[in-house]
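EI: anyone free to look at a 384-residue chain?
SC: sure, send it
EI:
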Amino acid sequence: MAQQLGTAKAAEAFDRVVGFLESFEKLDDPRQRGKVLYPLDEVMLLVLLGVLAGCESWVEIARFGEKKLELLRRFRPFKDGTPSHDQLGDIFAVLDAEQFQSCFIAWVSRLVGLAPGIVAIDGKTLRRSYQEGGAKAPIHMISAWSAGQNMVLGQMKVADKSNEIVAIPQLLDVLTIKGATITIDAMGCQREIAAKIVEKEADYVLALKGNQGTLRDDVKLLFEEQKAAQYKDIVVDTRETVEKNGGRIETRIVTATSDIDDLVGMHKWPGLKSVVMIESRRESADRCERELRFYISSLPADATRLGDAVRSHWGIENGLHWVMDMVFRDDECRIRKANAPANFATVKHMASNLLRCAPGKDSLRVKRKLAAWDEDYLASLVTG
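SC: here you go
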């Protein structure tokens, strides 16, 4: 590929950037009141390529821009070069975080289309995004994770002095989830959230703990009484699996029932069709651990499907949160100013998605190193 393309070829290359920049055209640029040396589309492309190539701070991205200007000009003019690290920080601090996240979701929709299957929703705190002296607490982001596609579908910053219970319906509002099964841990087990999922023509599997009054106790009592009676009074679907991993054996029994008319009448839960009990036993050479968990769902009582949904939910821990910490160094990131931490976290999710889409069996860490070593490989990540 030529080192620098003419205007027509540059435009053609730009069109191949997987719809990325086009998806961010609606993002307001507060700098438009004065002279803008660095167009927002160029800044976005610089930051994305920098993060793909291993940059973890504004200083590193600014240096990347200086060293890779000819690469950047394969896609856009960059006639005034690239911003300094202070300018990058200022730009990302004033970009509206909600708009930024909405643009990301639009980009993902263009990248992967609809996301049927399991969509796990969970939160993560960016530990070093606080401001000194307690002026600002670390920000908390909730993310929607497609278990089947192994990709982030969207995320949203939890507002200051708010919590996940408020943020989850807002995230659901901007996602296309028709036909999907949404899984959320016990924090998200709320009537309003269940109602929103049903309204969006999706299904839910929600973990039960003690935050819903007597619902968990009533579900537990139902299963205890019916199990003692060998389930003679209700119809259940059961699935048992045994897994051996090293010296540990894990047995998992999933029991589900839709004979819950009394529970539905008492608790008035939107869309509720089944309840689930999962009994786990983990045996090793020196110990045996047992765990009992309960769930509610808008799906029929299919133990295999419901058990798979519960297991898939935990993929967000290893597939997303762990990757953000270990590959993108989330917990070490010191970007703190205004909206910059949330916006930078969103860029890292973009980079993660693009690396996962890249062919080859290399790990995300190795792909990121390849992007730093090989300009053509880096360019291929965004041209698709």
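EI: The CA atoms of residues 255 and 307 lie 9 Å apart.
SC: 👍
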